[in-house]
Structures are given as C-alpha cells and as structure tokens.
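sorry for the late reply, my laptop died twice this morning and i had to redo everyting from scratch. anyway the thing you sent over, i finally got around to it. pasting the sequence first so we're on the same page, its 369 residues, then the predicted structure underneath. double check i copied it right bc i was rushing
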Amino acid sequence: MAKATIKMIAEIAGVSRGTVDRVLNDRPYVKKDIADRVRQVAEELNYTPNAVAKALKTQKKAVIAVIVPPRDNELFREVRRGVRRAQKEYEEYGISLELLTMKKYTIEEQERLLHEVEKKEYHGVAIAPFDALAVKRAIKRILAAGTPVVIFNTKVSGLDTMSFVGQDTDACGRVAAQLMGMKLGGKGAVAISIGKRNISAHISRAAGLEEYIEQNFPRMAVVDDFENFENDDVAYRLCWGTFRKNENIDGMFVTGAGLEGIGRFLKETGRAGKVKVVCTDFGRDAVGLLKEGVVDFAIGQQPFQQGYYPVKILAENILRGLEPAKKNIFTMVDIRTKENIDFSFVGEDDVAYPTRKPARKAAQTAEEA
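ok and here's the structure:
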C-alpha cells in the first residue's frame, strides 16, 4: 500500500489539506468532531509525519535544487526573481535553495547538472527540462530515489513529476493563430521561426498555430518553418532563404528567441509592418519592435510565477507533506501590443507608497493657507 499522505487523509475525511495540517500539528480553530475524524483516518492509514519536516524542527536544513539556463537568457532573469521571492518566504522555516546555473544552454550541460543533483541529498528539484532522452532518464532516476521534482516553463512527456508550472503552449499557439488571422483577414501565407526543436514549448506553440489555422482559416497556410537555435544572426540568415522560397509570406510566428534577427531582416528588406509578426515573451527586442510597429503582438507567459511556484510547491511538500491540487498549473497567455506593453502586473515590490512625512507637510501647508 502506498505511503499515507495529508492529501489522502483529507480526501477520506472529507476536509481540506489545510485542516488536516492544523489537526496533526495541534493547531487551534478546528471543531472537535472534525479533529477526531481526521485523527481516526490518520491512524487507520498508519500515517507518519514527513521525516524531513521532523528534522526541520530540530533546525536541520532542507535543500531544494533549481536548475536554470545561463544568466544571459533574458526570460529566465524574471524566473530567477520568482525563485528568490519564494526563497525569502521559506528561509525562516529552514528551507534553503541552490540555484544551479547552466554554463551553456545545451542538453549535455543540463544532463551534467542532473548528475550532480543525483550525487547529493536534495529534498526537491525544480527544472525546465530539454525534451531529450538523456535528460528524461536522469530525472526518472531522481524520482525513483524518492526526490520530488517539479518541472516548469516547458513540459515534456513521459515524466511523472509532482507538478508542471508554465504556459499551456498549445493554447499559446492557437491564440497566436487567432491574432494572425485577424491581422491577415483570414487569408495568407505564414512562416514559423522555432527557437530550438528540443524545447517542447517551442514545438507545441508551432503545432497549436498550425492546427488552429487548419481548422479555422481555410485560406491561410503555414508554408515554411525553420529552427534558429535561439541565435539572432542565424534567424536573420534563415529569413533570407525562407523569403527566397516564398516571396509572398504575409505573417511570421516566432515561438522562442531569435526575434532581433527577424526584425533586422524585415526592416532591411522593407517588409517591416507589411509582414505581420506575432512573437512570444516581453524581452527588450519584443518591446522595441512592438513600439516600432515591426511586431504586432507579443504573447507572455508570466516567468516570475514559473520561478516562484515550483519552489513554493516543493517547500510545502517538504514542510507539511502537501501536494498541489492540480498536476498542471498553467500561467497566463498574456497578449500585449504597443499600446499596453509598458504595463505589467503589480507585485509587492512594485508598489511605491508615499511616506507619512510629506503627507503631514502637505496638511500643515493647507492649514497655513
């Protein structure tokens, strides 16, 4: 029989996991009959508290490993900010983090860091994995050793991890197709620039766009796609070849990086504003090209949340044995144009409150008047 968890107790007792946690930790504000029922179910299931949580009570640290791409990856700078926010929230409970940064954004480098994780006793692992057999095998070994894993940003098949946090990338592609159809009046030729084919998010976005066009726009078609390896110069060169083969391309969908090179090509060839462009993420190139009118729409994916929630999920599992209610935690498919690209979601660190001193001075000035 599987080891009893707080989630199992909650389901059988018909209460929330928070209630189970309060009962088992002798916290107040739970009715006696409910508390008795929870304890009875826990006893019947032979529930034993999480060993790591017990160790934390004696000031022993629990360590979570977060594997991230190199520091020059613009998207993941915001992911790192989310990771640091979660770290601040849980460090007082004895949770610490090791941010393992890839030297190169390659399968081999990610596999190397996963091997390092296997050698140490981490209590949880978060990773945005490549869709590669070697990476999947390493993650499966970590899972088999009993270490919980949360994947984020890019979802891959064949892994039974605790959770996935990130964009529904198929939905992103379908939304991109809707936007493209609006700009092109439902007819025209579209090309797709794929960042890396071994990043499943990039492939899934492209597939979502193609499927939606096929189902809803009979006079539109995807005529070409190319992999730019997330390199602007490569994207620039490949655009020349793509447009030589298909001179009348009306729209481009950019599923990952390489946008600067594509924008450069469109401007140099006089196609900027004529070829409609939908891109992903709100990096500096996307913001600049939106404002110039080279890009029509940018679709974001809330990278801060993709850093914050994996750490939170693992920390709650370590401390209280909790697991997320949903296996897939999807972030927003966030559409921006040049009219709203400067707006962002307001977080605690973004709110600037006036100090009390100027307010008093303003009141005194009013009284003097």
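Residues 131 and 198 are 5 Å apart (CA to CA).
thats about all i looked at so far, will dig more tmrw
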